[in-house]
Amino acid sequence: MLRWIVAVCALMLALPVQAEDGYDLWQRYRPVEAGYAIPATSIVSEGTTPPLIAAAQELERGLSGLSGKVIEVGTLRDNAVIIGTPSSSAAIALLNPDLTKAGEEGFIIRTTRLNDRPVTIIAANRDIGVLYGVFEYLKLIQTRQPLTSLNITDAPKVKLRVLNHWDNLDGSVERGYAGTTIWDWWKLPDVRHPRYTDYARANASVGINGTVLNNVNSNAVSLSPAYIAKTAALADTFRPYGIKVYLSARFSAPIEEGGLKTADPLDPQVRAWWKAKADEIYAAIPDFGGFLVKANSEGQPGPQDYKRSHADGANMLAEALKPHGGIVMWRAFVYSHEKPDDRHKQAYDEFKALDGQFADNVLVQVKNGAIDFQPREPFHPMFGAMPKTPLMMEFQITKEYLGFSTHLAYLGQYYEEALKADTFAGGKAGNTVAKVVEGAVDNHTLTGIAGVANIGMDRNWSGSDFDQANWYAFGRLAWNPQASSRAIADDWARMTFSNDPAFVAPVVDMMMTSRETVADYMTPLGLHHLMDTGHHYGPGPWVDNLERADWNPVYYHKADINGIGFDRMKTGSNAIAQYTPKAAKLWAEPKTMDERYLLWFHHVPWDYKVKSGRTLWDEVVVTYSKGASDVTTMRNRWASLKPYVDADRFEAVATNLMIQEREARWWRDASVAYFQSISKRPLPAGYSAPEKTLEYYRSLKFPYAPGN
Amino acid sequence: MLRWIVAVCALMLALPVQAEDGYDLWQRYRPVEAGYAIPATSIVSEGTTPPLIAAAQELERGLSGLSGKVIEVGTLRDNAVIIGTPSSSAAIALLNPDLTKAGEEGFIIRTTRLNDRPVTIIAANRDIGVLYGVFEYLKLIQTRQPLTSLNITDAPKVKLRVLNHWDNLDGSVERGYAGTTIWDWWKLPDVRHPRYTDYARANASVGINGTVLNNVNSNAVSLSPAYIAKTAALADTFRPYGIKVYLSARFSAPIEEGGLKTADPLDPQVRAWWKAKADEIYAAIPDFGGFLVKANSEGQPGPQDYKRSHADGANMLAEALKPHGGIVMWRAFVYSHEKPDDRHKQAYDEFKALDGQFADNVLVQVKNGAIDFQPREPFHPMFGAMPKTPLMMEFQITKEYLGFSTHLAYLGQYYEEALKADTFAGGKAGNTVAKVVEGAVDNHTLTGIAGVANIGMDRNWSGSDFDQANWYAFGRLAWNPQASSRAIADDWARMTFSNDPAFVAPVVDMMMTSRETVADYMTPLGLHHLMDTGHHYGPGPWVDNLERADWNPVYYHKADINGIGFDRMKTGSNAIAQYTPKAAKLWAEPKTMDERYLLWFHHVPWDYKVKSGRTLWDEVVVTYSKGASDVTTMRNRWASLKPYVDADRFEAVATNLMIQEREARWWRDASVAYFQSISKRPLPAGYSAPEKTLEYYRSLKFPYAPGN
After folding, report:
1. What whole-number distance in Å separates Cα of residue A549 and Cα of residue B105?
2. Does some domain include residue B513?
3. Closest-CA residue of chain B to A57
4. Between residues A116 and B10, which one has the greater pLDDT?
């Protein structure tokens, strides 16, 4: 046996048995370098519930991996780590720590003494808090924090922290760039891949406590008995990690699944069908979370098909779920086929009037901006405008409009920007989007943040190593919407790659500017929705032939020989009026405003002088060019970090940056070529002409672009 | 550093850092148990070509893994392993071994002495032979063979050993049950996943030397410049492993890609387009293998659309490829929409007359049987009937008709049965299908075997652990069509799971009977094509409503109140006449024939007495029931092997067997219920009635069945 052990050791050291392929995400638990000491000697856990067992297992796995010695659940020793709740652990009960601030899901981590022994306790009021505490404690080690005198109390500021999977039953993922769905629907409920547990571990490690399994453009088959059984199997796997499952509900399911003639929310048969369906689901999944609904939006069925309101539709489902404790997340991303009005205004116009009409187990889910997850958008005017309704934030983690999974864009910085925006609700400064979402502004206890997942079958889960950071940052900001995205990037980089300061500092800087760079080479100065049709891959500012005016990029940039930009002032669509006066003031005056929003709100002459002193035309070209050259800078920076990164992941990131550099240049050249054909102006001195003709860029086709 | 090493060792032993997930296939290279000695001390390789570097790396990886010590490429020591060709290795040249029998791709492995040192040499005439020899040598260790006095010479008996991927450009895989395609077309040619190299290693380890990347139901976009560049990137990755890439060519590509008005093979413009396309491909891929073509079959375009023959079509493509050394694999799986004749006869009828008309770089690719990869088929009558044409065997590795990836069916035993079948070509006994395919019967040097791949993005590659054995066995039998499928199963089980005799013996027995078991519960006694429509999942013997008669199961079983079976004798379709008289004789007489083919060739009364003494009706029920209960036996056997298998793979296989047991019972019950509704006969004593009604079985629908 010993010979064998030695053999295995030699082997393990000899070979990259487990090359870094990104599967372990930020939970790699590799041994810490000499010089950083982990005092922990043993784990004391008396808990027997699934979450407490999961917590003990994770701590054992993490401490053993990080310390490089087997640290098991066992007896009390000096520097033992004691985990549990007062009810599950005699030791915790004895120490009787103050858990009032921990609440339902929070925890405390404290170094203290038990019968004169130094110990570390991870305690909570409920089991799930213990698991969250364990992940926090492991993060302290993964990021090399001192462990000698800990006194941490933490609890989530938002109740529902939910991933939205836009996954279809045929395995494809709408706007997915990381391969197909990880849900093996065909083999469920029998086959439960280990990947499902790793998915739950990763989510729990950042506090995500819910997942919507299927696309908001949904299929009634998801509500069939066979698929409820499949969903129940996933729910069983996720339950120990505090993750509830939700389903996107197709509003017309009573017709397609139920065989009824109508889906009218006020029809008694329809209401009865939904009640029965809810009962059926809860019989299989007692802690089922509820429904997410996309209704009367982009062709989806909804209550308006029957001349009923969004509130009528949402409340019918809420009534069916209410007895079981379920909730409805009703999306506000609507823009009517009939209305020719600025899409920016339509959600607000439709929903504002319904404030106060929604049942108390309904949240209205609002995208961060009023158009559609553009590289930059001003915050959505609904935030702060519906005090009687809990508004749930919807962020997009998958990069539909930011270069798919090959462009590096750290979205934590984007999310923070959106959350920090001041709505001036009630005319008061400081009522940020974050505080609205937390319920602090209008005293809501039912609160939530959703993120459209970037997860697929790719081995690295997210399609690229750096896209993992967006999943991670979403979870961290859902837990605490006022957290710093830079601090989050720092944690992520340390856990995912290396704690070497020579690596961490430049990588975090690169991450923090990366999304700005994408906005520069795709949609500078407040331009938006310029991506090519359907797949949204690459530039398509010239597209003007789509059925609906507001599907065309030309609708959004409105460029002509004189100028460019969407006038959303009084003189134009007046979308600005949907913001509180103090918020509106920020964007009212081109001379003083943040020019990164200039063309979002104003139509401006080409020869208008921007703050840099350049003409607008020159500034557009300069900004596009800067975006492209900043990618070259990122690429060079990454090349210099080779000593700190394992070969496979270094290569993978380097290849993506090579692609991004080429495509940023493409964006810059195609956009400059197109806008120059309209402005008829010369390029500023020192700025090179596009490599190819406008006709060339217009001719490009991508028949099998992913996610479309 | 030492502290760190010890730490890592402790860690590696403490944790299942790398749980067995099947990704390593039969190339796990885990340390051998004490008691088995590996003499090798170092590797001597002077080769600098990609295949020789790959060979040295594989040997280093394998020997280090298996011995548990680092064994590197270095200097000559006692018991060194010397690899190379006489031209690449001075040592090999000095020892000057007899390589005449090794041929172009073969190798020798020999223990000998060099300057009085004991050494092992792995030598070949060409680089690729050295790589094949390295894999053979590693297999000896993986299967615990003695290494002390080796004197092995081996060479492939077939020239083209090719996988056919039925992979579509949208990522789906036709008849694929292991997830989506492993070709990340979107990110090619830039991103080259490590998985591509592991794919090449696995194929080379069993001698596969070609791969057709795209579906035979093909898309002309595969021939576009962008996709040729993507294909070239894969070719570059596979080249060091001796694997050529091929493409399925859409016959109408000159219209779709070339913008021509016709694809008539005799049209000069069409011929010129294909010549130019071939030149374009070879400019990017100098060793491109050639085209696989499905023409005038199941709606695919072909030469008959222009009143030309299959030979006209194949020869046009052959002419374009010829200057570059490429070949055409022209599929014989054709059955005309017009002809109402027995499908069994149509390929033979269409192709027999063309024998001698094909260019010398064309092979005709023939499925093992005349219908379509059924659980059992008599060999295809074309084998032995076209002496002037090289016939390439097409096996299906993916289990379209044998339970997808959840049913355990070892196809090595199926392939061996087909290859061992005696065609009695020229009236002589011993001219087996294997010998026809090897070219031995008609002296062809251009020979080939194709297998429709069962590979996808599932972590274990093939959708289940045991399906890996079918990929493995295909390769081994393509290398040597006269090999023993039992010996192959034995090697595979040892390399994939364990060398413990207590594990190997029962598992190999289980594998060898597993396909017979599937035939019993799906299509006993020569019944065929009874699977449900489209997806081919589960029983559909009642289906009678499809557009074409020969798409309906009822067309194949022809059951009525009096009897069942397809009369292919003179009195019926007379398909039997397509076989040589001596072969036909085997099946001519129900009384004496192998009854596993009875209903394939004969329509037999229900009360006909079979060899067992039972009536045919009783035998049908008994065989269906036996198939179902044999799965229970398999399941119990696997359960008893738990001590020998790692937890994850044991669980995965156990879950699949649970599914198979349920579905075998479903097959048995649904089939018995249906046939009883026709025979109107009672079940034999002691055989239970179906669990549910026939209506229930007929009502089952599977909207998202994979591979459809």
Report:
1. 63
2. no
3. B15
4. A116
